[in-house]
Amino acid sequence: MATDDPASTNLTDRLRAFHGRTQRYLQAGHDRFAAARFVAEAFGPLPGPALDVGTGKGLLAMALAQRGLDVVSVDVDASEQEVAAALVAEAGLSGRIRFVLCDARALPFPDGAFSGAAMMDVLHHLADAGPVLAQMARVVGPAGRIVAADFTEEGFDLVSRIHREEGKEHPRSAVTVERACAALHESGWMRRGASTGQLQDLAWFERPSETS
């Protein structure tokens, strides 16, 4: 959900800004696309469809689609989705990703509609992740998986530094992956694994089976 957009509403300008910042991250040793692939790997062998919550520029949605999944991408920002859709088209993945403009605190999907749901670099934008995570838990089927990822401290330091170079500040709430664990546990989900890499801390969650 972090924004690369300048004040201009021109899509070409916004795409140029995205690619410019992505190149700046690469110069600093961070590959945004590799980070999205790292998070997507935690989705496991699920067949889809997959839900990407707070998709921003669509990097995680693209990484999931590249794994052969059909993806629904949700975000509250139409401008972000416009950039994401252009990037998806550049990658040749438009047939696999559908964009829905909505608030993730009230997802417009039936219970169990997805085999899994994921979010990347979203938690630190939320004052309270509970309602969003509860909705993700609702729309994922009984044998599904939820993946939650956010920057490591090193990642936050890098993001903040690059934002300051642009004369901006990178907002960060107190919501963390650990807090997400607690919220999902209240919804009946258990953490089944965790990993760190590509400046990302992530955890994945499943519902306990009757025999576990």
Question: How would you characterize this protein structure?
Answer:
The protein is of the alpha/beta class and about 210 residues long. The protein is about 40% helix and about 25% strand. The chain has seven helices and seven strands, in the order ααβαβαββαβααββ. A seven-stranded mixed beta sheet has the order 3-2-1-4-5-7-6. α4 (about 80-90) links the parallel β2 and β3 (about 95-100). α2 (about 30-40) crosses α3 (about 60-65). The radius of gyration is 16 Å and the shape is globular. The model has no long low-confidence stretch (mean pLDDT about 90).
Q: Based on CA inertia axes, which overall geometry fits?
A: globular
Runs in which pLDDT lies below 50 for 5 or more consecutive residues are none
Determine the fraction of residues in helical runs and give it as a percent range: 25-40%
Averaged pLDDT: 92
| Helix and strand element order | HHEHEHEEHEHHEE
Instruction: Note the total helix count.
Output: 7
Structural class: alpha/beta
With strands numbered from the N-terminus, the spatial order across the biggest sheet is: 3-2-1-4-5-7-6
Largest sheet: 7 strands, mixed
Distance between the termini: 36 Å
Total strands: 7
| Radius of gyration (Å) | 16 Å
Question: β content, as a range?
Answer: 15-25%
